[in-house]
Amino acid sequence: MDTAVEFTTEPLGASQVRLIANTMRHDIIRMLEASGSGHPDGSLSAADIMATLFFSGVLNYDHKSPNDHSLDRFFLSKGHAAPVPLCNVS
């Protein structure tokens, strides 16, 4: 089952963001299971934050224009949560 999250330029409502966060959690578990290693807690706890930032309109970001310096930047310095941004871009 493919659960890839589609990017949209339109801000989504709270219920849609919640569904995306749950989809991300599902993808995180699948990725960690497939890799046979990883720390699920850090990624699972960051799913709501990432979904809100990227899909509710909080972060001014366009995945089609990553080099546009007028847009917001996001830096993740939570190493054990590396799978969570992969859910956002896959």
Write up what this structure looks like.
The chain has a domain at 14-60 and 79-89. Helix content is 50%, strand content 0%. The protein contains three helices and no strands. The chain has helices at residues 14-35, 40-55, 83-89. Helix 1 runs antiparallel to helix 2 (40-55), helix 1 (14-35) crosses helix 3 (83-89) and helix 2 packs parallel to helix 3 (83-89). The mean pLDDT is 84.
Q: Give the rounded overall mean pLDDT.
A: 84
User: N-to-C terminal Cα separation, in Å?
Assistant: 14 Å
Number of helices: 3
Shape: globular
Major sheet characteristics: none
Which radius of gyration do the C-alpha atoms yield?
A: 13 Å
Sketch the topology as an H/E string, one letter per element: HHH
Quaternary state of this entry equals: single chain
Sheet-strand content, in percent, reads under 5%
Number of strands: 0
Structural class: mainly alpha
Compact overview of the structure:
This protein has 90 residues and is mainly alpha-helical. The protein has a domain at 14-60 and 79-89. It has helices at residues 14-35, 40-55, 83-89.
Task: Fill in the keyword field for this structure.
90 residues, mainly alpha, 3 helices, 0% strand
